């Protein structure tokens, strides 16, 4: 498909002989905010690891555009990796580095920009996430929500086409979580990026996602893909509706 950012084809995910999920087929379209949903332990984080090239499929393909990631040579994979910005659950900042130094890490690794330009770019990225003036702070000196935002500044350091988040709002209070959702939307709009995130926060899912896949631990396969709001209204799968309606079975978005 012309506008496909990532296509998953007949994917089986396994750790050794332990199969987590099989027969996964879905497409993340360019410009999507795509959410990976499902109950605890169904394999959401593992699927994310497949999408960012950290884990190879037991079977099946991960295509970027039309190219099979695992059939590319090292330089092809590196090219793809460079297009990806990743924000891990904890923000995963280096505690011994200031925020500016943290954001500079990918710039130093992947560009030949001089020190001054890297410093300016790091400040600019921090300002985009509302952390102007916090360049010289260490992670231990800022709040959880600010750490997430600093992690986000680092994830967007190289202007990625694809942004990946693992439980971005985990551990945040509802207001900070809402602010982070708004920031993700804002950055997506201004950068024109495609966003893939793992989350079980229904409020986030309905606020920002336009596409999704639902993984089921019991049957070890996906039960649905598409716009979560549409799935709530139209899915004929009880497990999916149950999850999306917080267990009430009510298909009205307002009541959730
Ligand atoms: N490196 C690993 N080696 C072996 N098994 C693993 C590994 N990582 C995860 N698992 C197992 O795979 C299953 C799915 O884990 P994963 O973290 O992908 O699920 P999840 O849906 O993201 O879970 P949660 O919602 O609880 O974060 C779990 O049973 C977990 O124990």
* Helix share bin: 25-40%
Terminal CA distance reads 34 Å
Q: Enumerate how many helices there are, as a single number.
A: 9
- If you compute it from the alpha carbons, what radius of gyration comes out, rounded to the nearest whole angstrom? 19 Å
Question: How many strands, what sense, and barrel or not for the largest sheet?
Answer: 6 strands, mixed
Q: Percent of residues in beta strands?
A: 15-25%
Helix and strand element order? EEEHEEHEHHHEHEHEEHH
Q: pLDDT below 50 for ≥5 consecutive residues: which ranges?
A: none
Described by the principal axes of the CA atoms, the overall outline is: globular
Spell out which ligands are present. adenosine-5'-triphosphate
The average pLDDT value, as a whole number, equals 91
| Secondary structure category | alpha/beta
Strand order of the largest sheet: 6-7-8-3-9-10
* Number of extended strands: 10
Keywords:
alpha/beta; four-stranded antiparallel beta sheet; 256 residues; 37% helix; 9 helices; binds adenosine-5'-triphosphate; globular
Characterization of the model:
There is one protein chain. This protein has 9 helices and 10 strands. With 256 residues, the protein is of the alpha/beta class. The strands form 2 sheets. The protein has a 6-stranded mixed β-sheet with strand order 6-7-8-3-9-10, sandwiched between helices. A 4-stranded antiparallel β-sheet has the order 2-1-4-5, covered by helices on one side. It has a domain at 92-158. The model has no long low-confidence stretch (mean pLDDT 91). The protein is globular, with a radius of gyration of 19 Å. It binds adenosine-5'-triphosphate. Residues 15, 20, 38, 40-46 line the site of adenosine-5'-triphosphate. One of its GO terms (molecular function) is ATP hydrolysis activity. This is Polyamine ABC transporter ATP-binding protein. It comes from Desulfobulbus oralis. Keywords: ATP-binding, Nucleotide-binding, Transport.
